[in-house]
Write a structure and sequence with these properties.
Elements (H helix, E strand, L loop, with lengths): L5 H12 L7 E8 L2 E8 L5 H14 L8 H8 L5 E4 L2 H9 L3 E5 L5 E4 L29 H9 L7 E8 L5 E8 L5 H13 L9 H8 L12 E3 L2 H9 L3 E5 L5 E4 L3 H5 L3 H4 L2 H30 L21 H20 L3 H14 L2 H5 L5 H14 L5 H38 L18 H8 L6
Antiparallel strand pairs: 1-2, 2-4, 3-5, 4-5, 6-7, 7-9, 8-10, 9-10
Length: 464
């Protein structure tokens, strides 16, 4: 707690901040109408021009009458919008480290906190992984305040609520709950607020993923995503208007949407930027292609193991020649190879991305066939699977479907038809038992069945 002794206050704050150990923690001593004062700030988080104008106002306009109390001084002498007072040393340190400027004045038992911060940020451009053919082309960035403003810009309603939290005893990461007070599920909101209040971890090491794992403490073996990620402000705003809760995390360029069903994860903004008939076609095509991406290679393997069961019209899928490497191992190798190429592309400089793609394409096509490692059919089906994975932007769902596909391949190879059936049942159970935070089924509105809502998830109707 601060006192009216200016020297002791400075020593207390300097000791708590350890400002003498870090070059970017700056203490600037000034004189305001004969009174000693100091400002503490983080170099790089300060709006220099705003701070300069505030100090200029101090030097020209402040009189002795303004020093009655810290609150009175803030009312009469600080020409800035966001100003608070506090005598809590811990809060002062936390706010300074967050970018806020702390002003300590001789004779005041409280510090004045001026929110003159600014954060380095990239351009507010359309996200690379969540593009649309039509509609707005802005996207979230790593600054929480700007992200909340992007949602506020779209929802001009007093029911829109943005609640702030700090998670992590070391990082004190800012997060925000965004919801419509008149539409949100109150039970879900209370449950989420309770869990956020109970989180006691040192830091959000991996940002949003750490937060998700802190909220969902169980069912780690289920690969299906528990929340929906989006980098689009319009998608987040639409979800809020539908009664969902959006979580924004500082330093994360995306929003978390909950509760989330499998149908929500498969939705895209393009479904709503086109006419209902076009949006419905795009949605149904995405559902079909997603299902095909899981079943096509296990079904082909099953057909190769049971050629007598294949109808004449589909016998062209069978192989005429013996393979040096069994088809099962070819498919597994290519599953890993494709991920290897994807990881290599992420870590390759932009100038070398095109040569890497050409080399990878050649290595997994002509050369691999001529060398006897793979057959043309295996490459064709895995190419279809790879392209199908990009019909929806959710990486978590893409890898969930990959694990389901690999499980079906393994069990089909070992137990033939019975393995295919067992793997299908396991995958269905994984989807069915993947509960949302609200307790609803992951397959809602299919299970439990809600005809009206299910129709809205399958067919794009008029915007409400």
């Amino acid at each position: 707690m601060l006192t009216k002794d200016h020297t002791k206050n400075l020593e207390k704050i300097k000791k708590a901040l350890r400002s003498d150990k870090s070059f970017d923690l700056v203490q600037r001593n000034i004189i305001i109408k004969g009174r000693k004062a100091s400002i503490f700030f983080v170099d790089g988080f300060l709006k220099d021009d705003i701070t300069e104008k505030i100090l200029e106002y101090f030097y020209k306009n402040v009189t002795e009458e303004n020093f009655k109390t810290p609150e009175y001084f803030s009312y009469t002498s600080i020409p800035y919008v966001e100003v608070t007072t506090t005598d809590d040393t811990e809060k002062i340190c936390t706010d300074v480290l967050s970018g806020i400027t702390a002003l300590i004045i001789e004779g005041f038992e409280k510090a004045l906190l001026l929110d003159t911060r600014t954060y380095p940020q990239r351009e507010n451009a359309e996200p690379d992984n969540d593009k649309v053919l039509r509609g707005s082309h802005d996207g979230f960035v790593e600054t929480l305040i700007l992200n909340t403003a992007l949602i506020r810009r779209r929802i001009r309603d007093t029911s829109l609520t943005v609640q702030a939290y700090q998670i992590g005893t070391e990082t004190k990461t800012d997060i925000a709950l965004v919801y419509m007070e008149n539409k949100v599920d109150k039970k879900l909101l209370k449950r989420l607020q309770k869990r956020l209040g109970e989180i006691n971890i040192p830091s959000l090491v991996m940002n949003q993923q750490t937060l998700i794992e802190a909220i969902y403490k169980r069912v780690w073996f289920n690969p299906f995503p528990k929340v929906k990620h989006t980098e689009r402000p319009d998608t987040a705003a639409a979800s809020v208007l539908e009664g969902n809760i959006v979580i924004l995390v500082d330093n994360a360029p995306s929003a978390l949407i909950m509760p989330t069903s499998i149908f929500d994860v498969l939705e895209e903004a393009d479904d709503y930027y086109f006419s209902p008939i076009v949006g419905s076609y795009l949605r149904l095509a995405r559902y079909f292609i997603t299902l095909v991406s899981v079943l096509i290679t296990p079904l082909w393997l099953l057909a190769l193991q049971n050629p007598d069961y294949v109808p004449d019209i589909f016998r062209f899928v069978l192989l005429d020649t013996a393979q040096n490497v069994p088809v099962f191992y070819q498919l597994l190798l290519m599953e890993i190879a494709i991920d290897g190429l994807r990881l290599a592309a992420l870590n390759t400089p932009n100038s070398l991305t095109t040569p890497l793609g050409i080399i990878g394409g050649i290595a997994l096509s002509e050369f691999s066939v001529e060398s006897g490692w793979f057959c043309i059919e295996s490459i064709l089906y895995m190419a279809l699977v790879t392209v199908a994975n990009y019909t929806q932007p959710n990486y978590e769902l893409g890898y969930s479907l990959k694990f389901c596909r690999v499980l079906m391949l393994i069990l089909t190879y070992i137990f033939n038809l019975y393995g295919f059936i067992i793997a299908s049942v396991i995958n269905i159970l994984l989807v069915c038992f993947n509960r949302t935070l609200s307790g609803k089924s992951y397959l809602y509105p299919l299970i439990p069945f809600n005809g009206k809502e299910f129709l809205r998830k399958i067919i794009r109707i008029h915007n409400r």
